[in-house]
UniProtKB/TrEMBL annotation:
InterPro entries: Met_Sox_Rdtase_MsrA_dom, Met_Sox_Rdtase_MsrA_sf, MsrA_MetSO_reductase. Residues 50-203 form the Peptide methionine sulphoxide reductase MsrA domain. It catalyses: [thioredoxin]-disulfide + L-methionine + H2O = L-methionine (S)-S-oxide + [thioredoxin]-dithiol; L-methionyl-[protein] + [thioredoxin]-disulfide + H2O = L-methionyl-(S)-S-oxide-[protein] + [thioredoxin]-dithiol. The active site is at 55. Belongs to the MsrA Met sulfoxide reductase family. It holds the Pfam family PMSR. Residues 1-22 are annotated as: Disordered. It comes from Streptomyces laculatispora. This is Peptide methionine sulfoxide reductase MsrA. The keyword Oxidoreductase applies. It is an enzyme of class 1 (oxidoreductase). GO terms for molecular function: peptide-methionine (S)-S-oxide reductase activity. NCBIfam families: msrA (TIGR00401).
Length: 221
């Protein structure tokens, strides 16, 4: 991906690129692996979860390989620029994360189980980086779609922090914010299911090796 030599810093909304009122590209209609719609409409009873955990190529594959996940798509979330392009996000001037939207069946896979996969598949203590990928777009984040999701994320963060600290790791830096007001902008076609199209492609995903207690148990439980 991209290695920035300057110290990453989030732009303010005033500093961020302005963007555009409509996207410059179209998004494919179907998931190349699961065969389901990327942008919806989604069947009744499914729920949506949004995660950012570094480069979205490998992160998306983690979720589409999970039983109960109906579709996944990658995009940009948490910044200020409307309808951003990949190069703009990688410049650090939009404020967005590289995010994965997960549409799942809660009767098959629970939100806490998705959180376990999220925490264990990256290092949430690294701030504006994941390994060699340095930049604000690589920060760890969860954008929640309900009060129940928010409560579950915070409980899992407390529980995971306890075991991370016991293993010698630092403080979790994961951004936890409502998805409401933080538009998920789908990424370009080339980035959707990238590692299905390019099996030998770059995957920077990697965890701490510390298991997350799920649960999710309270930190003092």
């Amino acid at each position: 991906m991209f290695l920035h030599r300057r110290t990453p810093q989030l732009p303010t909304p005033q500093e961020a690129l302005r963007g555009r009122p409509t996207p410059e590209f179209t998004v494919p209609s179907r998931h190349t692996v699961l065969g389901n719609a990327l942008l919806g409409p989604y069947p009744e009873g499914l729920e949506v979860a949004d995660f950012a955990m570094g480069c979205f190529w490998g992160a998306e594959r983690k979720f589409w390989q999970t039983d109960g996940v109906w579709t996944t798509l990658v995009g940009y979330q948490g910044g200020s620029t409307e309808n951003p392009a990949y190069e703009e996000v990688c410049s650090g001037l939009t404020g967005h994360t590289e995010a994965v939207r997960v549409v799942y069946d809660p009767r098959v896979v629970t939100y806490p189980e998705l959180l376990k996969l999220f925490w264990e598949s990256h290092d949430p203590t690294q701030g504006f980086r994941q390994g060699n990928d340095v930049g604000t777009q690589y920060r760890s984040a969860v954008y929640t779609h309900s009060p129940e999701q928010e409560a579950a994320v915070k409980a899992s963060r407390e529980a995971y922090q306890k075991v991370l600290t016991g293993s010698g790791h630092g403080e979790i830096t994961t951004e936890i914010l409502p998805a409401d007001g933080r538009t998920f902008w789908p990424a370009e076609a080339a980035h959707q299911q990238y590692l299905d199209k390019n099996p030998a492609g770059y995957c920077g995903i990697g965890g701490t090796g510390v298991s997350c207690p799920i649960g999710v148990a309270p930190a003092d439980g």
